Amino acid sequence: YGWFIRKLGRYVEISSKAIHTCPRCDTVSVKRIGTGSWECRKCSFKFAGGAYVPVTPNLKVALRTIERTMKEA
């Protein structure tokens, strides 16, 4: 395999094993428990997210759009 594929694989591996911020309690304690399954170790909040990151770029766009429409209403 080429260096670019290995670089992308390394990025996916690092981001999936990192500790992320919990959407409920805002602490940095979310770990991946399976493909698309995430759990906060502090408040035990389980939620579905992306396969390798808890918040995907498409979800960020959707949340911004919802927030904008709520302000207009």
Layout of SSEs?
Layout: H1 3-17, E1 20-21, E2 28-34, E3 37-40, E4 46-48, H2 57-72
Antiparallel strand pairs: 1-2, 2-3, 3-4
Biggest sheet strand order reads 1-2-3-4
What's the N-to-C terminus distance?
Answer: 52 Å
- Described by the principal axes of the CA atoms, the overall outline is flat
Percentage of residues assigned to helices: 40-55%
Give the overall pLDDT as a whole number.
93
Structural class: alpha+beta
What oligomeric state is this?
Answer: single chain
* Approximate strand percentage: 15-25%
Count helical runs: 2
Structure report:
With 73 residues, the chain is of the alpha+beta class. It contains two helices and four strands. A four-stranded antiparallel β-sheet has the order 1-2-3-4, with no helix packed on it. Strand 1 and strand 2 form a beta hairpin. The radius of gyration is 15 Å and the shape is flat. The termini are far apart. The mean pLDDT is 93.
Task: Summarize this entry quickly.
The chain is an alpha+beta fold and 73 residues long. 42% of the residues lie in helices and 22% in strands. The protein has helices spanning 3-17, 57-72; strands at 20-21, 28-34, 37-40, 46-48.
Features:
73 residues; four-stranded antiparallel beta sheet; 2 helices
